[in-house]
Amino acid sequence: MAHPIPDDDIDDNSEQNEAGTQAQDVADSARARSTDLSEESEHGGHSNPAQIIPDDVPDLVDTMHAMNRSGRIDMDAYVGEPSMDDEDGAERAED
Predict the structure, then answer these.
(1) I need a surface site. Which of 1, 36, 43, 86 has the fewest CB within 10 A?
(2) What's the rounded Cα separation, in Å, for the pair 56 and 75?
(3) Model confidence over 36-75: pLDDT tens digits?
(4) DSSP 8-state assignment for residue 68
(5) Are the beta carbons of 78 and 89 closer than 8 angstroms?
């Protein structure tokens, strides 16, 4: 039984087209990107009303560095929770 020869004019399958999705393509586009990010920033004194956490709130890293410098563990996250510490009063000795 003779099998027909497939057409060479088959349309490209867009799901198999890998142009632009390979690591080297992404790296090339990252290298070609302008390094001047000032175009993306907003100028002026207007605050963002959709911003959930204000810019002046210390993040986790700032809090960790502050605890490291002071030697005091910040237990504010546990205010109101029962203390199951074996040494009663040890966490409040400095207050």
Answers:
(1) 1
(2) 21
(3) 555 555 555 666 777 777 777 788 888 889 889 998 888 8
(4) H
(5) no
